[in-house]
Specification:
This protein has 700 residues and is α/β, with parallel strands linked by helices. It has 28 helices and 20 strands. The radius of gyration is 28 Å and the shape is globular.
Length: 700
């Protein structure tokens, strides 16, 4: 494979990077660039060099897959390559045609001149992987855009449009059209006018009171970065750029990079990075599978979920028809959608024109006849099999041939739903998470008869509406809710033996969850979980549940929407206040069961919560409900608030060590309700063999 093309335009050599999809700086590409620069240097007919990115990106950065491997340090390393470019006797111009991120921007900064498309996005996002720019980014960027702007870019990791950097030393020129001819002409001008070979390393930084500014920055960043060491280390690296000579600053940056690379946080964030990309790969559905055209969408149900689902497609420019059974319900749903867009408009996240276009994309109807031409129909009605049956039997009659019929069910048997139609091959589950217009996760539930092109199209749709699609097989609760049921059951059983809701929530939030289980339940609605438990009581009569949550619901304490749940809420506020009544009910249930309450440590709370998730995740993996362990992690990272710096439940299990997880579970099994701690066979197997979830099965 040729990682780069070398051509010439008169006296200008053009090195075109060819390592799709984003021209990552793998060892192969680094070697190809170095060879091109050296070839140009030895060719008397060549007077200048332009480095250009083939495709839509200039360069998306270092090859993260090489991190920690010999290829990362193999010659030419990034440092070797950048020194070669910087010391080239002939001018080197970066033609930034698209994304220039991480090592890609560092590559551009090592060049003598930079010409960028005005819309190109430039940034150093390494902090989002728990590391910092390790090839001179923290040293060169402050010299080219100023200390304050550089620090903001490095600590946030957010890219900036080239047009917004046009007046800095970073860019010598911007172009609205094709950047390559502009860069080639610029290179010719550099030669004709004998302009000096500018090196970012030689730029002097003049920033008065830098120590005070950096101390202020540390104070602002520290509270937001308590679980992430990288942001503060970024400030240390920028400080070295200001206070030390360039080469000493590079050494500081390099040492900090290696330090961060070995942290648990960075390992977890890098795992998440790869896991999200792997989730889109379906082993038996080739990437070449033809897709069904999705040009119009219908949503059945204008409730909270239906309205949120509709917004996703309107945001992507796809017209949506929302169907309801009554005008009142339809008006209420569309009014909520409009209000959501108005709030976004007020916050400045939408322009007036964008707001108008999105509102226009959504129409309402009371007639199935108005949705018969939709390419994709998504059912988002009440979570009851008989209600689903009525909807899908109707859709089977009115939807056009080839339309994809999707259910937003969160727990019900998709195969039964598919069999309500004469076209089960066209039926799939598209399980959105609340709030549907915000949450990143989309569980794509593949039925026994779902056609491959329906599966492939559904994954493509997830990308179109900016969701992270994860394939799940059919079982009760699929991946996320099946595991969550085990999690909630453990947390509720802990109430019986000695814990209180606020202690459990605080322990889980200290671990890193945005909200503990009882705050989540109050937010989602305790009646929803109550409904699921009632079904589980019938389907799993031998499974023991705490009765405390039922007693809470019997009092009408459904959470924030009723002003009371596991917590009390003041009118118009969402702040959870511990409830004396709830505490009293908890104590009464312990007494009714004849249990002597004991002290429950925060460590035990976290272990019971996570090991319940891990054990159920192992069953899901072994049963083939999830394609790979990392898919389970993606579900929890993107849909359930699992802290990303922990990497997901199964990654966390691997980190703790599966023998340690199993040993603790066996201790739990000696206590209250031991049936909850029967180990999954896969967990026992991997622990006995000294293996990990990551090493098992199809992890590609």
């Amino acid at each position: 494979m040729a990682f780069a093309d070398y051509t010439s335009q008169g006296a200008v050599a053009v090195i075109s990077l060819k390592n799709p999809p984003v021209n990552a700086l793998s060892l192969g590409l680094r070697s190809a660039i170095a060879a091109g620069v050296e070839r140009a240097a030895s060719d008397a007919s060549i007077r200048a060099v332009v480095i250009f990115g083939a495709g839509s990106a200039f360069c998306g950065g270092a090859d993260v897959g090489e991190f920690g491997l010999p290829a990362m340090r193999a010659s030419p390393s990034l440092a070797d390559l950048f020194a070669l470019i910087e010391n080239s006797p002939k001018p080197v111009v970066a033609a930034i045609n698209g994304l220039a991120l991480g090592g890609g921007l560092e590559l551009a900064m090592a060049c003598h001149y930079r010409v960028a498309a005005a819309a190109a996005q430039l940034g150093l996002p390494e902090v989002k992987l728990g590391i910092l720019p390790g090839a001179g980014g923290t040293q060169r960027l402050p010299r080219l855009v100023g200390v304050e702007r550089a620090l903001n870019m490095i600590v946030s990791g957010n890219p900036v449009a080239a047009r917004d950097l046009a007046n800095t030393e970073l860019l010598d020129s911007t172009a609205d059209g094709d950047v390559l001819p502009v860069a080639a002409a610029f290179a010719e001008r550099v030669v004709a006018e004998k302009l000096p070979l500018k090196k970012a390393r030689d730029v002097k930084i003049d920033f008065p009171n830098v120590e005070a500014f950096l101390d202020f920055a540390r104070g602002a960043v520290a509270p937001l970065a308590k679980n992430y060491p990288a942001p503060l280390k970024c400030i240390d690296a920028v400080e070295a750029a200001v206070l030390k000579p360039f080469d000493e600053g590079l050494k500081t940056e390099g040492a900090l990079f290696i330090e961060l690379l070995n942290t648990g946080e960075s390992k977890a964030l890098r795992h998440a990075f790869f896991a999200i990309r792997a989730a889109a790969k379906i082993p038996d559905v080739p990437s070449s599978t033809p897709l069904r055209a999705i040009k119009s969408v219908a949503v059945i149900g204008a409730g909270t979920m239906g309205g949120g689902i509709a917004m996703n497609f309107a945001n992507a420019g796809i017209p949506v028809t929302v169907l309801e059974t009554t005008q009142a319900a339809l008006d209420k749903g569309l009014s909520t959608v409009k209000k959501n867009y108005e709030n976004t408009l007020k916050k400045g996240r939408l322009t007036q024109d964008e707001y108008a276009k999105r509102i226009e994309q959504i129409t309402g109807t009371l007639s199935y006849d108005d949705i018969k031409s939709a390419d994709l129909v998504i059912e988002a009605v009440f979570e009851d099999m008989q209600v689903k049956k009525q909807v899908f039997e109707k859709l089977d009659k009115v939807a056009k041939s080839g339309a994809i019929l999707a259910s937003n069910t969160s727990t019900l048997d998709l195969n039964k739903i598919a069999n309500f139609t004469q076209r089960p091959q066209d039926v799939i589950g598209l399980h959105f998470f609340s709030p549907a217009n915000v949450s990143k996760l989309l569980e794509i539930v593949r039925g026994a008869k779902s056609a491959k092109d329906v599966v492939a199209t559904s994954m493509a749709v997830s990308k179109l509406i900016k969701k992270v699609g994860v394939i799940s097989g059919v079982c009760d609760g699929f991946i996320g809710n099946r595991m969550m049921n085990a999690y909630f059951r453990q947390m509720e059983l802990l109430l019986d033996v000695g814990a209180l809701p606020q202690q459990i929530d605080k322990a889980m939030e200290k671990f890193g969850f945005a909200m503990g289980p009882f705050r989540v339940s109050d937010l989602a609605g305790n009646d929803i979980l109550w409904y699921i438990r009632k079904r589980l009581y019938v389907e799993y009569p031998d499974r023991v549940f705490s009765k405390t949550p039922d007693r809470i619901c019997e009092l009408g304490r459904f959470g924030q929407k009723t002003g009371a749940g596991w917590y009390d809420y003041k009118p118009g506020e969402r702040t959870p206040n511990p409830s004396g009544l709830v505490d009293e009910i908890v104590l009464e249930e312990s007494a009714r069961l004849g249990l002597s309450r004991r002290k429950v440590s925060d460590q035990e709370i976290v272990q019971r919560a996570l090991y319940a998730l891990i054990n159920e995740g192992a069953r899901i993996l072994e049963e083939g409900i999830a394609l790979r362990a990392s898919d389970i992690d993606v579900v929890y990272l993107t849909g359930y608030g699992f802290p990303d710096f922990r990497g997901g439940p199964l990654f966390y299990g691997d980190t703790v060590g599966l023998p340690n997880v199993l040993r603790t579970m066996r201790e739990f099994a000696k206590g209250y309700q031991p049936d909850a701690w029967v180990p999954a066979p896969l967990l026992e197997q991997l622990a006995a063999e000294g293996k990990t979830f990551a090493s098992w099965g199809n992890q590609t």
